[in-house]
Design goal:
- The chain is built from 5 helices and 12 strands.
- The protein has helices at about 45-50, 70-85, 115-120, 130-135, 175-180; strands at about 10, 15-20, 25-30, 35-40, 90, 100, 110, 165-175, 185, 200-205, 215, 220.
- Helix content is about 15%, strand content about 20%.
- The strands form 4 sheets. A 4-stranded antiparallel beta sheet has the order 1-4-12-7. Strands 10-9-8-11 form a 4-stranded mixed beta sheet, covered by helices on one side. It has a two-stranded antiparallel sheet with strand order 2-3.
- It starts with 8 loop residues before the first strand and ends with a strand.
- The longest helix has 14 residues, at about 70-85.
- The chain is globular and about 40 Å long.
Length: about 220
């Protein structure tokens, strides 16, 4: 494996975030410890260097990787962790689609839904961290195609493409009682209307599905 470019991380401060679900009219609050989040979604080049595959529909080294399932994303995290000599965050069973998360591990992982929204808002209470066309690729300005990461303005904490371009997998199950093992997606994508590109919007997908507007970025816990 030849991983030439290190992932750039942003130190995210601790905080409290309130999440909400429009379908159930439910809201809940979560206290967050400090953590680190990748400044950009994982690119096709980095995914290929780690996994040895290029699964995306559109091709380009600086494009976000897409066409990856939730399981693909967690396996990427564990593979890169082992390569760098870090403790893998996830315990995967070979005989079943079952997973455990070791919260004490120093390896790569997916952000939780609360971590994602806290980082996206970057200390603001607004639906977006700037004017939509300046911060995100969405249906109104993308010419219905995916774009290189980092082409729009970052938020106040230096995180790019938190809204638009590709939806991002999060660790969390969406609603186990109604949707079973479906996992949370956040951020909106290049083919979405403007109302989907907001910090609070939640989408869901089965963890085995691969879609051309879904990618991911990685996080790391801060040792206590």
């Amino acid at each position: 494996m030849d991983v030439n470019a290190a992932i750039e991380f942003i130190a995210v401060p601790p905080g409290r975030v309130t999440l909400s679900d429009r379908r159930t009219q439910r809201s809940w609050s979560t206290e967050l410890a400090p953590y680190r989040l990748a400044a950009f979604p994982i690119t096709q080049a980095h995914y290929a260097q780690v996994i040895g595959q290029r699964p995306s529909s559109a091709q380009g080294d600086r494009l976000p990787v897409e066409g990856v399932s939730w399981w693909d994303a967690v396996r990427f995290c564990n593979t890169l962790s082992r390569y760098e000599g870090l403790a893998p965050a996830y315990r995967l069973r070979a005989d079943a689609e079952d997973i455990g998360w070791d919260a004490s591990a120093d390896g790569y992982r997916l952000p939780t839904e609360a971590e994602w929204e806290h980082a996206c808002r970057a200390g603001t209470a607004e639906a977006r961290y700037g004017e939509l066309d300046e911060i995100a690729w969405h249906r109104g300005n993308s010419r219905e195609k995916i774009h290189d990461v980092g082409g729009k303005q970052p938020n106040a904490w230096g995180l790019y493409d938190m809204l638009g371009n590709v939806w991002e997998w999060c660790w969390d199950i969406y609603d186990a009682e109604v949707y079973g093992s479906y996992r949370v997606l956040r951020g909106g994508g290049w083919f979405d209307e403007h109302w989907s590109c907001r910090a609070s919007v939640r989408r869901r997908s089965h963890p085995t599905f691969r879609i051309d507007d879904v990618g991911f970025r990685v996080a790391r816990s801060v040792p206590r």
